[in-house]
TrEMBL record:
Keyword Iron: yes
Organism this protein belongs to: Klenkia marina
Domain of life: Bacteria
Database matches in InterPro entries: 2Fe-2S_ferredoxin-like_sf, 2Fe-2S_ferredoxin-type, 2Fe2S_fd_BS, Beta-grasp_dom_sf, FAD-bd_FR_type, FNR_nucleotide-bd, MRET, Riboflavin_synthase-like_b-brl
Residues of the 2Fe-2S ferredoxin-type domain: 227-312
Domain FAD-binding FR-type: 1-98
CDD domains named among the record's database cross-references: fer2, PDR_like
Any GO BP: methylation
Lineage of producing organism: Bacteria, Bacillati, Actinomycetota, Actinomycetes, Geodermatophilales
Assigned keywords, A-Z: 2Fe-2S, Flavoprotein, Iron, Iron-sulfur, Metal-binding, Methyltransferase, Oxidoreductase, Transferase
Protein name: Vanillate O-demethylase ferredoxin subunit
Length: 312
């Protein structure tokens, strides 16, 4: 990909508009809410949501927040300029538009606006009923404010809540819940505590299965009580997973090719089917419904002595 345009949204957030290096249009349609692997100039791979209209074949847009203590991912992309080249992977989706909803509520916190922006484009193109709430510490720290205020498809459907303290946010969410039903769906992305608050406020209204979250960071897990277990592939190969190793690392050491990316249970690359046994889920990418038959091999473990899995 070639960087066609760089826009400094805030002092710490910039958007990169990417086009194909050969200037041809994109031939792969991606679903709203999708993300891609981006390999920057330092060779560090990170995942970023696509926040442009999904039906636009000319380019894709990602927003990059410079994170404190960056290990070369976000900081390197803040040095990229127009004309530079980047490598991106194929779009993957963990946060899609529900097909049977009577209305949709999108709730973004900070940089969490990125996947929800593409959902908003998609919902507008379908002429579906939706509202987008955007919380940020201040206007100076909020991305896409001008677009959300002035673009025709958004301006009457967006509530900007800038500088609203975390303790005051439940009141805003309660007001937004008026009119939602058990057929409505909620989509949220932002800091973990923010999403927990959104879920607590709105799951009782629409049902826990109708609250969809997108995580950017892995959850912290206590591993002190981890024990060894056995993993068997549907091909019959058997592997012993020690207490201090992941399923993914053991399979790779055994010569098994497993697709991976973040290795933190966020991106969903290594999610595979569980045929027998009970997983100990530690990911931040699968819904409760998904967890009934799938697991993320990079972080999750087993509650039983043996798992049988089928690689995706």
């Amino acid at each position: 990909m070639r960087v066609a345009e760089v826009v400094e949204e805030t002092p710490d957030i910039r958007t990169l508009r990417l086009v194909r290096a050969d200037d041809r249009p994109f031939t792969i349609n991606y679903p709203a809410g999708a993300h891609v692997d981006v390999t920057g100039p330092t060779g560090v791979l990170r995942q970023y949501s696509l926040c442009s209209p999904p039906e636009d074949p000319s380019s894709v847009l990602i927003a990059v927040k410079r994170e404190p203590g960056s290990r070369g991912g976000s900081s390197a992309l803040h040095e990229v300029q127009a004309g530079d080249r980047l490598h991106i992977g194929k779009p993957r989706n963990l946060l899609g538009v529900a097909e049977d909803a009577d209305r949709h509520l999108l709730v973004a916190g900070g940089i969490g606006i990125t996947p929800l922006l593409s959902l908003a484009y998609e919902l507008h193109s379908r002429d579906e009923e939706f509202v987008l709430l955007y919380f940020a510490r201040s206007e100076a720290e909020a991305a896409f404010v001008d677009l959300l205020r002035h673009r025709a498809e958004f301006r009457h459907r967006v509530g900007l809540h800038l500088g609203v303290h975390r303790g005051d946010q439940p009141a805003v969410l309660a007001a937004a819940a008026v009119g939602l039903t058990a057929r409505s769906h909620v989509y949220t992305c932002g800091p973990t505590g923010f999403m927990d608050q959104v879920t607590a406020a709105l799951a009782p209204v629409v049902g826990a299965a109708h609250v969809h979250t997108e995580n950017f960071v892995a959850a912290e897990v206590d591993t002190s009580a981890d024990t060894a277990f056995t993993v068997e592939l549907d091909t019959g190969e058997v592997f012993e997973v020690p207490a201090d190793r992941s399923i993914l690392s053991v399979l790779e050491e055994g010569g098994v090719d497993v697709f991976k990316s973040c290795e933190e249970g966020v991106c969903g690359s290594c999610v595979s089917a569980v045929l027998e046994g009970v997983p100990d889920h530690r990911d931040n990418c699968l819904t409760e419904a998904d967890r009934a038959g799938e697991m993320a091999l990079c972080v999750s473990r087993a509650k039983t002595d043996r798992l049988v899995i089928e690689l995706s």
